[in-house]
Design brief:
492 residues; five-stranded parallel sheet; 22 strands; 20% helix; six-stranded antiparallel sheet; single chain
Length: 492
C-alpha cells in the first residue's frame, strides 16, 4: 500500500481506536496521534460474571473551558491512552430503529442520515471486539446484538418485566462489555480501547502510534481544496510538528473535536473548518443523569449484572424526550449476593434522560481568553430546561409504580442533587450529522460537508441523543465511516 494513502487518526478513545482498527484491517496505513502518554491504572476484580470490585483512576478537572450556561456544568476529562474508556461502566446497548428516524416527527433537522439497518453490521463488528454479556432476545426499544456471554434477569424480576411490557417497555439484562467471567486487571474497565484494540496493531508495519502529540490545527491546502496536514505539539520536545496525510479522522471527544475545527480557521474557512453554514459547535446536548437507592418491602434477587428498563415507546411519548433505567446492586455485598442468587431489600437505579438538541446550546471560541498554546479557549453553553428535568424526575414515580404493579412496595432514599450537565460525560451534537449541509456539519459518513477528507467520528456527530449509553453507537459509526473511507482511498 502506497504511503500516499496514509490516514491520520486523532485520539485513541473508542471512536478513534475503532476507526484505526478498521482502516488497518482494510489495508490502509494509519498514524494515530494521542495527547496522552500512558494508560491510567485502576483495579478490576471480576468473579463468576460479577464485577466485585472496581477502582477507577481519577479524572482531571478541566479549567481550559469557559462555562457560560449552567454554572455547575461538569467538564472533567481524561488525556490518556484509551480516552474515556479508562472510566466508563461498559454499557453497550444498541440504539433501536426509531432512535434514528423518530426525531423527524419534530423537525427534519432531527433525522439521522443513517438507518439502523445500515448500522447493524457495524454494531456487530464493534460488539465482537468487546466480550459482551447480554440477553439473547430483543425487547421493546432495545435490539439484541452479538454477545459472547448470555445472562437473563432472575425469575422474581419477571413480574416487573410483565408490568413494564404493559407500558410498551422492556426489562432485560444491560448489555455490558464486561469481558470473561473471571478477571483481575490493573485497570478499572474490562474494555479499554487502547489495550483491547490498539495494542494488537503495534506490531503492524502499517500502523504507527505517536503519544504526547496534542493536535493544534488542521492545515487547509487552498490549491487542492482539502486538508493536507495536521500540526501538533510534541509534549516531550515542546516543539510543533507537522504530519501530512490523505485523510484525517478526528476523535478528540465531543468538545475538543469542534475546538480543533475552530482552531483550523483559514482564509477559505474564516469561522472554522466545516463552518460555512454557521452550525459548527451548535446543538450541543448531554444526558441528564440521576442515581438513587431504592428500598423494597420484601426481598428480591440482587441484580449483577444490572437490569435495563427501556424507554416508553416513541409512539406513546415525545420521540426526543425519554428516559432509561439501569437497575442493579449498588455495593459489593449486593454483588456477592447476586453471585449466589441471594435476595436483597435494596438496589440502586441510574436514570439517563435526554434533551432535545437546540442551536442555542453550543461550544464556540472565546473572544477574550487563550489556552496554553495561544489558541482561543472554548466556551461551553448548556443547561437543562424544566421539561428535561421534569422528564427525569418523573422517572422516579414511574419505576415505583412498576414495582407496585409487580407486588413490591418501594421507596426511594434521599437523592443528592445531580441534574446538571456533564455528570454523565455524554456530550454530543456539536458537529452533527445530516444529509443536508443546511442542518449538519458532517454527512452520512461523518465527513465534513466543507472538507470531505476530514471525518469526525466521536459523539459530537450525533444528530440527536437517545437515552442510551452512546459508546457502542459511536464505535459502530466509526467502523462504518472507516470502511467507506478505505473504499474511497482504494478507488482514488
Amino acid at each position: 500500500m502506497a504511503d500516499d494513502r496514509r490516514v491520520v487518526v486523532v485520539g485513541s478513545g473508542p471512536a478513534g481506536a475503532m476507526a484505526a482498527l478498521e482502516l488497518v484491517r482494510k489495508g490502509i496505513p494509519v498514524t494515530l496521534l494521542e495527547t496522552g502518554n500512558e494508560i491510567q491504572h485502576g483495579t478490576l476484580v471480576r468473579i463468576g460474571g460479577r464485577n466485585l470490585y472496581r477502582r477507577l483512576p481519577p479524572m482531571r478537572k478541566d479549567d481550559g473551558f469557559i462555562v457560560t450556561g449552567d454554572p455547575d456544568t461538569n467538564l472533567d476529562y481524561t488525556y490518556a491512552l484509551g480516552g474515556l474508556s479508562n472510566q466508563w461502566t461498559g454499557a453497550v446497548p444498541r440504539f433501536c430503529a426509531e432512535d434514528f428516524t423518530a426525531g423527524a416527527q419534530v423537525h427534519e433537522k432531527y433525522r439521522w442520515p443513517v438507518t439502523y439497518d445500515e448500522l447493524a453490521p457495524y454494531y456487530e463488528i464493534a460488539e465482537r471486539t468487546m466480550r459482551v454479556t447480554a440477553a439473547a432476545k430483543s425487547v421493546p426499544s432495545l435490539p439484541a446484538g452479538y454477545s459472547d456471554y448470555q445472562h437473563q434477569i432472575p425469575s422474581d424480576w419477571q413480574a416487573v418485566a410483565r408490568s413494564a411490557l404493559k407500558h410498551g417497555q422492556g426489562l432485560t439484562t444491560m448489555p455490558l462489555a464486561d469481558g470473561p467471567p473471571f478477571l483481575l486487571l490493573r485497570r478499572g474497565t474490562a474494555f479499554n480501547s487502547f489495550s483491547v484494540l490498539l495494542e494488537k496493531l503495534l506490531d503492524e508495519p502499517s500502523f504507527r502510534l505517536i503519544t504526547g502529540a496534542h493536535v493544534l490545527q488542521l492545515e487547509w491546502d487552498r490549491m487542492k481544496k482539502r486538508v493536507g496536514a495536521a500540526v501538533y505539539h510534541d509534549n516531550q520536545t515542546k516543539t510543533q510538528k507537522r504530519i501530512s496525510a490523505s485523510a484525517f479522522v478526528i476523535a478528540c471527544g465531543p468538545l475538543n473535536s469542534p475546538k480543533l475545527l475552530f482552531n483550523s480557521a483559514c482564509g477559505d474557512h474564516p469561522h472554522g473548518l466545516g463552518n460555512s453554514a454557521g452550525l459548527l459547535g451548535k446543538y450541543l446536548h448531554d444526558h441528564p443523569r440521576e442515581w438513587w437507592a431504592v428500598d423494597v418491602d420484601r426481598p428480591i434477587t440482587s441484580l449483577a449484572p444490572p437490569a435495563y428498563l427501556t424507554r416508553l415507546p416513541h409512539s406513546a411519548s415525545d420521540p426526543l424526550l425519554a428516559c432509561s433505567w439501569t437497575i442493579g446492586a449498588f455495593d459489593t455485598i449486593g454483588k456477592i449476593k447476586s453471585r449466589f442468587g441471594q435476595k436483597t431489600r435494596s438496589f440502586g437505579v441510574q436514570v439517563f434522560g435526554t434533551m432535545i438538541p437546540d442551536e442555542k446550546y453550543y461550544v464556540r471560541p472565546s473572544e477574550t481568553q487563550k489556552d496554553e498554546f495561544g489558541l482561543p479557549t472554548l466556551a461551553v453553553h448548556i443547561k437543562f430546561e424544566q421539561e428535561v428535568l421534569a422528564n427525569v424526575i418523573g422517572a422516579r414515580e414511574h419505576l415505583l409504580q412498576l414495582m407496585a404493579d409487580a407486588g413490591y412496595k418501594a421507596k426511594i432514599r434521599d437523592i443528592v442533587p445531580q441534574l446538571f450537565p456533564g455528570t454523565a460525560k455524554h456530550y454530543g451534537g456539536a458537529t452533527r450529522m445530516h444529509v443536508s449541509p443546511k442542518y449538519g456539519v458532517t454527512d452520512s459518513y461523518q465527513r465534513l460537508h466543507d472538507a470531505p477528507n476530514v471525518l469526525v467520528v466521536d459523539a459530537s456527530c450525533f444528530t440527536t441523543g437517545a437515552e442510551k449509553n452512546p459508546t457502542l453507537t459511536v464505535m459502530a459509526l466509526a467502523a462504518r465511516s472507516a470502511d467507506q473511507l478505505a473504499r474511497d482511498l482504494k478507488a482514488a
